[in-house]
Amino acid sequence: MDELTHKVNLAIENLRPYLIQDGGDMELVEITTENVVKVRLIGACRSCSMSPMTLKAGLEEALKSAAPEIKKVIAIDD
To answer: What is the pTM of this model?
Structure first.
């Protein structure tokens, strides 16, 4: 696991308790060569009307703080 992936996984792990508390979760799918993080929303996060805001204001902010080289975070569907 490279350093960037490690930083991203740590940031997700720090947010995970809040997601689980609301019946959801997320998993890292990939980090592209352009430093775009792709995540898959799980459980309640998939249908939650707040998930776009959680993704931008929560996860993206946390990831950019932990790894400033991250350009953006996007959620993908199965």
So the answer is: 0.83
